Here is the input.
Amino acid sequence: MNNYFISGLSGTGKSAVCAELKKRGLNAIEADETFGFYGDIETGLPVDTKHQLNWIWDSKKVEQMLAGSS
Here is the structure.
């Protein structure tokens, strides 16, 4: 199975593409909802401060998901 990463600026339609893929019966995930959290950039630990500069993804979750999709 192939994995595709769709990226783009806010408001460019990534969520709409994800919704359309799901509607067509494909496995599509919203990466920010699945992997994202506010965290310390240095340690990767969650923080209470919500700012766009400390929005990060849990890379271990990404790796686990990709490893399970092969």
About this structure: Strands lie at 36-38, 55-57. The first helix runs from residue 14 to 23.
